[in-house]
């Protein structure tokens, strides 16, 4: 770039601002936004960056927004996005119109018929939603979930393929305890009529940030696959919920194993708790080292 | 500056280099403040005289050159580069030798450098640096880590007091990141940085190096411990708050 040394172009500044916003830990984008705004010192430019970064952040973090009028919550995901600020809540057949930057829902409207799946697909979607909701209620103290049809929503009968996406999100923000975290998982389920089977692909992502006198972050991801047979909606739903439950429980166990491996294996490769000699370093008697080194030098061994 | 430091406290520590360079481009007139207040992963170059690697930092830099603790020469060469006094250089040489052994015993690899300089007549400063690549491809003895970095910066101010004592003020920063990756558990990555201070008044009977060394050893153990127990522990606690593990127990029963 020719003008690199002169002055950063607005476009470059905006990209940097977006980078900071998108890298905000779960639940912290508003704090990051405040700092970014101060640093940019250009409200117009900040607004441009924010209006590009927030929609992306909200979807990738799958944030949960309350709809007015006690209708319930809507999850912001790539799967239920109708417009940049319109998200479908299939459970209530409502569309939430949101303000991405303020992260609030400004109004709701009824979903149009063409925005909803066919009765055939809805029967499956509804059954899966019921089963997964029950599981999420049991497993996550503050979890939310939703089920969307992401492909073939107009499928009319057992001969046609379609795809559902199950989204589970749980977030905990406790800035007073200097800690934030989020769990997000998405399960894509392909209903394949040819093989009378369901192909399931799962993605789980966990983040945590602890920042009392320091900055420590966990970032963990895992993907997995599974399959089951195509059956009646209720049976499919029960099978899907079981598969999700099984994989998520297993993943949690593997996270705990990763943590318990830290002190004695993983962390040891960075720095040991005690020296290889298993006693504190002999600072009072370091002359022994130069002595042995002198001998080594004389004998021509060592470095 | 306050906003910039606020951002550094929130950005993922493993991206701290990117975050710092982004801030430097946005706030060029704050660059010296940023560089002195934001800790960043240590850089290493090779001493042309003896092929040994040494660590770069603000304390061995003069203009665009860095002084090697091994040959005492600036890289790239620099005329009239700042040098410690002959006496202090002696202590620096000894400190580098001993610290190499200390580092090897605790880290089983890695690189270390110690730099000393006079502050005024009654005081001097020592900077002890350690960089360790604990990944499989680096110096990880056990081969558990896809990626693993530990950078430790210890800056210790020594002020001579009356009656054979000296006061020591140690400021230590540790930055680390570790990633494990396998099919069964996916990618698991922890990264962080913490900074602590320790002050002591000690007799110099056993020498400055002995006092500084003990303080650094104690501090490193404390930092390692609080990262391991407190900081990593808190993130684990968070995971278990999001999805409590008790459910795992009674869910496994009907399965088998």
How would you describe what is shown here?
The complex is a heterodimer of chains A (303) and B (256). Chain A has 303 residues and is an alpha+beta fold. Chain A is 37% helix and 31% strand. Chain A has helices at residues 10-22, 29-40, 43-60, 119-139, 233-266, 287-299; strands at 64-67, 72-75, 81-83, 86-89, 94-99, 104-110, 143-151, 162-174, 179-192, 197-210, 215-229. In chain A, helix 1 (10-22) packs antiparallel against helix 2 (29-40) and helix 1 packs parallel to helix 3 (43-60). Chain A is globular, with a radius of gyration of 26 Å. Chain B is 37% helix and 34% strand. Chain B is an alpha+beta fold and 256 residues long. In chain B, strands 6-7-8-9-10 form a five-stranded antiparallel β-sheet. In chain B, strands 3-4-5 form a three-stranded antiparallel β-sheet, with no helix packed on it. The N and C termini of chain B lie far apart (58 Å). Chain B is built from six helices and ten strands. Strand 11 of chain A pairs antiparallel with strand 10 of chain B, so a sheet runs across the interface.
- Fold-level CATH name of the largest domain in chain B: Aspartate Aminotransferase, domain 1
Structural category of chain A: alpha+beta
Assigned CATH superfamily of the largest domain in chain B: F-actin capping protein, beta subunit
Largest sheet of chain B: 5 strands, antiparallel
Reading the helices and strands of chain B in chain order gives HHHEEEEEHEEEEEHH
The dominant shape of chain B is: globular
Number of domains of chain A: 3
Q: Rg of chain B, please?
A: 21 Å
CATH hierarchy class name of the largest domain in chain B: Alpha Beta
Please state the second-level CATH architecture of the largest domain in chain A: Alpha-Beta Complex
Quaternary structure of the protein: heterodimer
In percent terms, what proportion of residues of chain A is strand?
A: 25-35%
- Overall mean confidence score, pLDDT of chain A: 91
Structural class based on helices, strands and sheet pairing of chain B: alpha+beta
* Sheet with most strands: strand arrangement of chain A: 7-8-9-10-11
Q: How many helices of chain A?
A: 6
Give me the count of strands of chain B: 10
Poorly predicted tracts of residues of chain A: none
The largest β sheet of chain A comes out as: 5 strands, antiparallel
- What Rg of chain A is obtained from the alpha carbons, in whole angstroms? 26 Å
What is the CATH topology classification name of the largest domain in chain A?
Answer: Aspartate Aminotransferase, domain 1
Keywords (chain B): Acetylation, Actin capping, Actin-binding, Cytoplasm, Cytoskeleton
Protein name (chain B): F-actin-capping protein subunit beta
InterPro entries (chain B): CapZ_alpha/beta, CapZ_alpha/beta_2, CAPZB, CAPZB_N, F-actin_capping_bsu_CS
Subunit structure (chain B): Heterodimer of an alpha and a beta subunit.
